[in-house]
TrEMBL record:
Gene3D superfamilies: Leucine-rich Repeat Variant. Residues 1-35 are annotated as: Disordered. It comes from the Eukaryota. It comes from Hibiscus syriacus (Rose of Sharon). Pfam families: IFRD (PF05004), IFRD_C (PF04836). Residues 375-427 form the Interferon-related developmental regulator C-terminal domain. Residues 19-330 form the Interferon-related developmental regulator N-terminal domain. This is Activating signal cointegrator 1 complex subunit 2-like isoform X1. Belongs to the IFRD family. InterPro entries: ARM-like, ARM-type_fold, IFRD, Interferon-rel_develop_reg_C, Interferon-rel_develop_reg_N.
Amino acid sequence: MGKNQRKNKMMLDSDDDSSSVSSSSTMQSDQFSVSGADELEFKKDSLLDEAVDALYEKRGSTREKALASIIEAFNSDLQHQFVEKKFATLLHQCLNSIKKGSSKEIYLASHVIGLLALTVGPGDNAQEILKESIMPILQASKSGSESSKIASLLECLGIITFVGGIDPEETEKSMQIMWQSVHPKLGSNVVTAKPSAVVITAAVSAWSFLLTTMDGWRLSPKLWQESIAYLSTLLDKDDRSVRIAAGEALAVIFEMGSLEKFVAEAKGSNNGSISEGNKSKEGFLQIQGLRGKILNQVRDLSVEAGGKGSAKKDLNNQRNLFKDVLEFLEDGYCPETSMKIGGDSLQTSTWSQLIQLNFLRHFLGGGFTKHMQENEFFLDVFGFTPKRRNLLGSERISNGQKRMLKSPNSVISKARTQILNKQRMLSKDRNFGHFAVNVGEYDA
């Protein structure tokens, strides 16, 4: 059975710094003095200082402009020195914007907080960001129904938990907030507005982004079954972005071996009474039926013809994704992707890596390449070392010199890759799919 290797070729070039330093004396184009570089750095810091000061202004439009300029500065360069000086001030003012600002201001402030977390990397500051931000984010996401505001808050929550979450309980709490924003547990007297496609897409994407950092065997079968059932309903939605987000989430769930957990627990509980055995067998058959339904949905979406007014690019993205999900469900092969970062190639070989990469790339937009080339946290998570860093003596990093910023995500990712490789070998030996389970094997 041939292995389909889909290669995503994306050329991402770093943004050129077009800023220049004027001088009264004439300078040759190939000369750039140290004092000139210092002056440029001073000007950048000065502009950022002014932007932070503007966050104290009463006029909302002034604060919005300041937040937009901060986002631009953080995207164009890693602001480590500035963050060391103004970390607490910037976080505090952004949280004030989330608590009291307009929808646009909340949208911008939540993005700045996410960028702040990615800049400081794992550690005490990132933990403080998560601790201080989670309640304001939760409260702001429940007030009003502006889709872009809520989506930005959920994406921010995903980023700050990814960087600052230390305990699995913290990650689970953030995932629960995301889940309930689109799939609330309603009481008899509770009425809630249906979330928009934009909010559903953001919530499911952020949820699956955090799921990549979790040990799926910690979570209960009931939670897994509820999650899979809901995501299956999203595959039938009209909005293509919702279907794609649900497909990616299901791929991560299946990669974590949740169905195998269902089967193991169903068989294990058979040691009890006859009624318990029948109940567990019934649950097992329900899971198998749900898997069969999803398989049919995925197969249909992988060959969808496309409706009127359907954008060709979006349709192709959907087909490609669900072809990969289908092959994964049937044969156990993850899509292998290759992305150009400047002149270097970044490769992924698991669904978890791909979902992490796509989420961070979406969040950072034009700033992704800069972070991917220079942010130690990114380099550690993806095990990526740009050649340029090795060629420049001043940036050469040996194992002994490398900053001790080991993300648990990279450890999980590598371990999961090893497990998946073993499972692929077993899959070939058994001559059936990676997640296929024979109902006949169930011991009644």
